[in-house]
Amino acid sequence: MSNSHGADPAFWRAGAISATVVMLVILGLLSVNSLTVITAGGSHVPPYTAINQQILYRYDPVKGYDMPVIGGEDLLFGRRYDPEQARALVTRGKLVIQTKACIDCHTFFGIGAYFAPDLTKSWLDPAWDQLWMPMTGSKTREEAMVKFLIHPDRYPTWSRQMPDLHLTQQDAEGVVAYLKWMSAINTNGFPANFGHAPQP
Amino acid sequence: MYQSQKLAIKYLVVAFALFGVMIAAGLLTAAYYLQPRLLFNTLDFSTAKILHINTLVVWNLMGFFGAVYWFLPQEVEREVVGIRLANVMFWVFCAAFLTVAAVFAVVQTGPSAESTLWLINQGRKYVEAPRWAALGILAIVAVFMFNIIATAVKARRLSGVLGVLIVDLVPLFVLYLDAFPSETNMAKDMYWWWWLVHLWVEGTWEVLIACIMAWTLMRLLNTSRRIVETWLYIDIGLVMGSGILGLGHHYYWIGTPKYWFALGGFFSALEPLPLIGMVVHAIYDAGVHRMHCSNRPALYWMFAEAFGNFFGAGVFGFMMTLPQINLFTHGTQWTASHGHFAWWGAYVCGLISIFYVVLAEARGARQIDGPLWKWSFALLNLGIIGMAGGLLIAGMAQTFHERALGGSTLQSFITAQASSWFVEGMWMRMAFGVMFAIGYVLLVVDLVRVGRMASVVELRIPEVGA
């Protein structure tokens, strides 16, 4: 601080203003692009009608990480939802997730409370087929998920249990649709190796 | 004493009482990991967690308000304009907090309808408070802005510190508007939510506390305004220069484009720079004053702020900020470890320092010292380091078992939670949490007594450069 600028607050004030303005402009421009990419139907986030299709999560050797793959028709609850119905069902699911404060136990995209499993790809969790379908006597994954969500206390899996949040049938179907749609979002490979052994 | 300063003391007293509520809710939250059936279906983990993190936000905000209402009239040498309205808003703030806390504790959640978002719970992390309460906070911030701007205009005085504070009030108000939306698309929801958490809490709050610490330094160490303002601008330049695009390290995994890897990784790696500057300057100040100060607790807590911010936010943040590492650490207790330590260093130590300065001035104490603050200082700092350490060990177990090996499925989550590292880490967190709580009790006792009892001795203010 011995030179003429070093101890001059005005010099550093100009620097602080310049740094802030430049960074805000860059953030603004990048946000316009990012928001386009993450709009439902954008390049990273599927349309809500993805709930009518099969969702997979596979290692992409070119990208070097797991990518969601949207396959052929795989109806949810045996119904084909048109765009408006799909949006309404997924919106209901999000409303349930907020009103029941799911994020204060679980995490979504790894963000939340860490007390319960991450739900980013939970639609694809092998536990639904291996554990809950036999336990609930269900023929499909979504049927098992709905039964579990309505009566979590009846299907304990370990010492930490999900409380009864008094979900209705419609609430539970909305949450299941939400989880199926969310599992098809391109999250740049997070979580890594979901449901399969680590890649060499 | 100005009316504004009487209000400041009310704000600080309530803030530190809520600090205790936050600790109690935190201990309860920690207990669920050790005893999962605790209060099951009565007061579940999520409710305790909501109380813990929302009380944290509220008491920090009240602490900042208290500090500003204390220093502002001294800065402009006149009473704060609109102080009656400010007093009304203080009681509104207290009543709103009590109502929201009671609703959280008793009602907890509601039916899946918009009315629940308005009246009971918004279910977004840190902004769970229902919309009516969020509107109340906006109104309180608006009055706070009016008080400061109108006072500066009336006094026809605008120092560098006050100017920065006024500019900072705009994003403080605007960014909080993000506490209301209910966006279906989680990727978009999280995109804007991070503006609230990173840019509001880690941006506007950083500037707010920097202004408050600037005023504190001038009183505590007689540091010249020119030096303080120079460092304030350098700090803001570095915080904004690195932190605005450092936001990108929250955009790795929420569906956003991959260019955030490079931008977020690079700029968030620079984020410790202003914190290093803070540590260097704290050591410099300590050397200049040979650790002599009329208010030793305030001085030591200010050093704790510098070091805690550097290690908690800087080092612990840097440890997991690069995407190659973050892919495996993200969303584990590692994050919680960083969060606890960073918040402690960034805000809590500073608020404790400020309260000691305010109490010394309010009670006319010429010198503050004594054994009790040292015990609370040691227990609180060891407590937070131990908690951060326990959570770090648990987070490492999760990173290994759940993220790296298990692929983050339900089974791998259970495997990680049941591992001995995780369980021992959680016991360690609880033990150090109790130590922290004891430190808090001693802190409160000292704050009640300080300046009134035997700790008042003769004044001895060192000269700068002596």
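DSSP finds 16 helices and no strands in chain B.
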